[in-house]
Specification:
The protein is α+β, with helices and mostly antiparallel strands and 68 residues long. The protein has a 4-stranded antiparallel β-sheet with strand order 2-3-1-4, covered by helices on one side.
C-alpha cells in the first residue's frame, strides 16, 4: 500500500470535495481518500499494483480540478 498527498487547486466547498472523492474511489486500488479543503490537499492511499500517481492526477483533472 502506498500513499500520495497532492495539492489541488479549485476545491472550495463540500460539493468539490465530494466530486474529487467520488472520482478517486472509482479508481481500482484506491482504498481511502482524505481531503483538507483549507490546505487544498488530497491524500490518497492506493495499491500500487492497481493504480499509480499518474492515474490519480488524471482522475482529479477529469473531475475538473488542477493538481499543482
Amino acid at each position: 500500500m502506498s500513499e500520495i498527498t497532492l495539492n489541488v487547486k479549485g476545491m472550495k466547498c463540500g460539493g468539490c470535495k465530494k466530486r474529487v472523492e467520488d472520482a478517486l474511489v472509482s479508481l481500482p486500488g484506491v482504498s481511502s481518500v482524505k481531503i483538507d479543503l483549507k490546505k487544498g490537499e488530497v491524500q490518497v492511499a492506493y495499491d500500487e499494483t492497481s493504480t499509480g500517481p499518474e492515474q490519480i492526477r488524471k482522475k482529479i483533472g477529469e473531475a475538473g480540478y488542477q493538481v499543482a
